[in-house]
Amino acid sequence: MKLILLVLTVILTWAQAAKVMKCWGRSGVCRTTCGAGEVFYILCNPEAQCCVNPKYLPVNTESSNSAGSLG
């Protein structure tokens, strides 16, 4: 009986791990809600968000209102 429970536990755990979809260059995970320390950046599909650690997101270091040097 213990063997059956062990095998069932392993199979169910493996089946859930196989369903994980990666996104954002394999740095993010598709989920319905993002966890703590993750941010939503793009949609994986209509039901899931791409949850990414903020350190993997592009950072705009230049202000969009800056005129730059003209002369």
TrEMBL record:
<keyword id="KW-0044">Antibiotic</keyword>
<protein>
    <recommendedName>
        <fullName>Beta-defensin</fullName>
    </recommendedName>
</protein>
<dbReference type="InterPro" id="IPR025933">
    <property type="entry name" value="Beta_defensin_dom"/>
</dbReference>
<keyword id="KW-0732">Signal</keyword>
<comment type="function">
    <text>Has antibacterial activity.</text>
</comment>
<feature type="signal peptide">
    <location>
        <begin position="1"/>
        <end position="17"/>
    </location>
</feature>
<keyword id="KW-0964">Secreted</keyword>
<comment type="similarity">
    <text>Belongs to the beta-defensin family.</text>
</comment>
<keyword id="KW-0211">Defensin</keyword>
<dbReference type="Pfam" id="PF13841">
    <property type="entry name" value="Defensin_beta_2"/>
</dbReference>
<keyword id="KW-1015">Disulfide bond</keyword>
<keyword id="KW-0929">Antimicrobial</keyword>
<feature type="domain" description="Beta-defensin">
    <location>
        <begin position="22"/>
        <end position="51"/>
    </location>
</feature>
<dbReference type="InterPro" id="IPR050544">
    <property type="entry name" value="Beta-defensin"/>
</dbReference>
